[in-house]
Amino acid sequence: MPVIRDRISKRGLLMALAMAVPASAADWKKAETRHFVIYSDGSTSQLEDYAIQLEKFDALLRLVFGRPASEQPTRLRIYLLRSMGQVEDLRGRNIAGFYSPRVEGSYAVSNREANDRGLRTLFHEYAHHFMFNNFGIPAPAWFVEGFAEYVSTTEFKSNGEWIFGYPQKDRAYSVNNGQKIPIEALLTTDVSEIRDGGAFYGWSWALTHMLYSDPKKRGDQIQAYLREINSGTENLEAARRHFGDLAELESNLRRYVRGSMGYSKSDLTLAYAQDIRITDLSSYEGELVELTLERIARYEPEATRDKLRSLAERGEGTAESWYQLAEIEFALNHKEEAGYDFSAAEAAVDRALALDGNHVRANLLKGRLLLEPFDHGDDPDPANWAAAREYIGKANRLDPADPLALYDFANSYLREGASHPQMTDALKMAFSLAPEAAEVRFAYATQLAREGRYDDAIFLLKVLANNPHGDRGAKAVIEALTKARDSGGVASIRFEPSEEEDESTGDE
Fold this sequence. Notes:
Layout: E1 3-6, H1 10-18, E2 29-32, E3 36-40, H2 44-65, E4 76-81, H3 84-91, E5 98-100, E6 107-111, H4 117-134, H5 141-152, E7 155-156, E8 162-164, H6 169-177, H7 183-188, H8 197-213, H9 222-230, H10 235-243, H11 246-258, E9 264-266, E10 276-280, H12 283-297, H13 301-312, H14 319-333, H15 343-355, H16 360-376, H17 383-398, H18 403-416, H19 423-433, H20 438-450, H21 454-465, H22 474-487
Parallel strand pairs: 1-10, 3-4, 4-6
Antiparallel strand pairs: 2-3, 2-10, 5-6, 7-8, 8-9
């Protein structure tokens, strides 16, 4: 298996040692594969093993569910932390890992504890990403989580064997000792509406496992059930048509969890993307990885800002470190109590662009900052629209496959209430690159609604409406679009993410 190792030069090592770097700075490494960019401060062999396991997992999901590999996949960033405790410290709650779908770059965080729970958590989180990117139809909450739990127990043996659908011991305990959720409630609610969240995960897993494992092959009817509810059939009616009498289904499910569950095992050679490139990061780069993760995931951003400022102001400050500082300054001051004062963010992003005028994300942030006065300023300069689009257009030319550049281009016209002939195509491409991102989905749905394509817009938003961790207002928007469609009127919608909203689909 070709594994390429990059090491920093002797001169670079001496410089890194000479800098005032905290003695406890972690030894971070980066692994790049076809589908993933993985950061870890563990051993090289462990990182390589995780990279191989993830690529095998992607290949097996594609094999089992008949999903072809993309020629140019958007790689998912993954951060592997030492323990579940570190993940908990990052989020401030009891959590083993989480997945955060975002237009600026989706990512997952997990732990690498030796009990394999870290790998199982990582498989669960990647299953969410895989579903978003490969299953074209929205799914109800029970199947979103049930699917992720069902596939998360996959094992790859050193002799080439793989095991799929192995029973989840933790979830089996939940269903046998936790809340008994009626089948109708399980099919129609989400985790936030269930008193016992663990029971929701458990029963969702059990139902998914039973349907895929049943000798009558009721699992083959899951896709038909999903297609029907997305064509307008009420959830329970579609379930009755494809899964049979619901009382009998519930009885079978209760009996199923008390019995012996089967699983699949095979020694079939699994073809997967084997090229792995592992890079040892410098101390400075490692610190920046840690602080970037803190910026996008930590619940205490003020402390992270101070650390990023200190890092950027060091002698070896890079365009990336100044950009990360600019992003967190923008986020912290993008609120009413802060007065929408973006001077610190502007100063930092200008430093980033001075060091690297071709930094894609710094150009995009500069463009967004030029548009903020139209939302929060007293006397915005109309010339800012064109100036902002110059930066956004440059970013798009630098990286035509960056979904954020495409989104920012179209969104600038949505914010202005204007139109551009390439808006729909830009959002369509951004959506194809990041279908998991709520912002892109809402923007694309907004544009389709403006064109009178209400059914297409509603279909896009159903994925969010069924999100087990909150619908982001999608249900209300769907209702407005439905009324506009039926009445022949016009619906105006706009996605306004809350500053406090947790975008991750974290699993406790």
